[in-house]
Specification:
Elements lengths: L8 H19 L6 H8 L3 H7 L3 H20 L8 H11 L8 H13 L1 H27 L9 H20 L7 H13 L8
Length: about 200
């Protein structure tokens, strides 16, 4: 199957990311072939290599895109929110129902144990997420909203660890905690990072 008329390169990448995420979640990274991903996306196998060097690179892009979609759903474009509120909103999501991309990240973690290239691209993707969070925290510190007693990198690493842990809890389908209690707990934790100690 050749290039689809009227489909832009970005639309092709989006089709490939979505198809890859679906197959990786359902079949696993190793068992999903590039031919199956192309078929699921409705493009030729050559289209994958026109946009991605390796299947691991496609996995990393799918993870990045899922993360961006999840964040965009929480913070609509153009919305101005202070850093403390961003931390509260993100942390409140950790105890909620599974979000898109959770199973994909779990599969990526499994694949990373067996594939050094997947481990490398996953580490890069998680480092990007951590850097983005550190930037939010550093901006909050610069604006005087968050205390600078703890570095932005430490707060970001803690957030990354909480996010990965919550993903595993969801995948194992452990019983949920009370949302109201979780929200109270989150606000207390974030409050400890604010300059007024109030979150």
């Amino acid at each position: 199957m050749g290039r689809i008329a009227g489909v832009t390169p970005e639309q092709t990448r989006e089709r490939l990311r979505d198809a890859a995420a679906t197959l990786f979640e359902r079949e696993g990274f190793e068992r999903s072939t590039t031919a199956e991903i192309a078929r699921e996306a409705g493009v030729s196998s050559g289209a994958i290599y026109a946009h991605y060097t390796t299947k691991a690179e496609l996995l990393a892009d799918a993870l990045r895109c899922h993360g961006e979609r999840a964040t965009a759903g929480l913070f609509p474009p153009g919305t101005r929110i202070d850093a403390a509120t961003v931390l509260v909103v993100l942390a409140e999501q950790l105890a909620g129902p599974p979000r898109g991309g959770s199973a994909l990240l779990a599969e990526a973690l499994l694949a990373a144990r067996r594939d050094t290239e997947v481990a490398r691209v996953l580490a890069d993707a998680l480092a990007d997420r951590s850097t983005a969070m550190a930037t939010v925290v550093a901006d909050g510190q610069a604006q005087g909203v968050l205390t600078d007693e703890v570095s932005a990198d430490v707060v970001a690493r803690f957030g990354l660890m909480l996010g990965l842990g919550s993903m595993l809890i969801r995948e194992l389908e452990l019983p949920a905690v009370d949302p109201g209690e979780w929200s109270t707990f989150v606000r207390r934790i974030v409050g400890a990072l604010t300059t007024d100690g109030d979150g």
